[in-house]
Amino acid sequence: PGDALRAIALDPTLRAPAGTARSPQNALEIQRAYLERVERFMHHRSMPDWAPLACARWRAVLDMLTEGEAGAVACCGWALKRQVMTQYLNRRGLDWKDVDRLNAVAARALAEPGAMHGALSNLGLDLSESVPLRERIVTEARQNGLGRKDVKRFLELRKDLCELDMRFDMIPGGISDALPQTVGRVPEITEQRIRHAMTWPPPDTRAAIRGRYIRRLSPERERYLASWAAIRDLRKGLYLDLSHPFCRRARWKMPRARARERLLPCGGTIPPLELD
């Protein structure tokens, strides 16, 4: 499953096949199989009243994605970001085939014995800062008909694309703010509904339980620490267990000694939190 997810995530055409119990299917085919199953039960009493709206929107997005790049740009933020990056590459006389070729060169250099662990390249490693690593890439590039200037160009391009990726969704003032709002919006989701949802989650969810406790305990915000799975009482050493995703009620518990040491080691203290 991990390999299949990675193959799908790296394929903007949405055509990469992933093995299933019956036969290989691409991302769109898998999504349509899920959608058809949900549509079969969307009027069941256990489903929310907005299930038909969600299914209609789901199907409309899959239909747009089937149209290719133009349809994807109209409904998905990732496709809009890719379009901006494509324009950036084209202005520099490059395309995605050039990026793929240079990425392959860097990946082979990272995979050589003695090179830094290849996984670091996926965690924002600055390849240009390591002289031995850069020379490995140059050596590998020469074996593939590329020169030192090509490697320098690639490393500069990599930095630029990473920066563009970071700046795209910065709020406020990101690149996406300056672009025409082509990504489709859902008219039923109004500003009023968004503001209500920010404070009042669906009543039969774990989020509703968490929200009730946060409102009740917030006057003593220096005493409590909240996360998705628990609320911790730093004074009494207790925690409110919210680990079950479908819990309907929660109880205060005493953590085991080993867990307590991991959460607050060696008598350490957690500084009080301030609301910005």
Structure report:
It is built from 12 helices and 4 strands, in the order αααααααααααββββα. It has 276 residues and is mostly helical. It has helices at residues 2-9, 27-41, 51-66, 69-73, 77-91, 96-111, 131-142, 148-168, 175-178, 191-199, 206-217, 257-263; strands at 224-226, 230-233, 238-241, 252-253. Strand 1 and strand 2 (230-233) form a beta hairpin. The model is unreliable at 117-124 (pLDDT under 50). Helix 2 packs antiparallel against helix 3 and helix 6 (96-111) crosses helix 7. Strands 1-2-3-4 form a 4-stranded antiparallel sheet, covered by helices on one side. The chain starts with a helix and ends in a 13-residue tail after the last helix. 8% of the residues are buried. The radius of gyration is 25 Å and the shape is extended.
Unreliable spans are 117-124
Largest sheet: 4 strands, antiparallel
Q: How many helices?
A: 12
Q: Please bin the fraction of helical residues.
A: 40-55%
Q: How are the strands ordered across the major sheet?
A: 1-2-3-4
Average pLDDT, rounded to a whole number, is 82
Number of strands: 4
Order of helices and strands: HHHHHHHHHHHEEEEH
Tell me, what's the shape?
extended
Strand percent estimate: under 5%
Helix-strand makeup class? mainly alpha
Head-to-tail CA distance between termini: 41 Å
Question: Quick recap of the structure?
Answer:
This protein has twelve helices and four strands, in the order αααααααααααββββα.
Q: SSE layout and pairings?
A:
Elements: H1 2-9, H2 27-41, H3 51-66, H4 69-73, H5 77-91, H6 96-111, H7 131-142, H8 148-168, H9 175-178, H10 191-199, H11 206-217, E1 224-226, E2 230-233, E3 238-241, E4 252-253, H12 257-263
Antiparallel strand pairs: 1-2, 2-3, 3-4
Helix pairs in contact: 2-3, 6-7
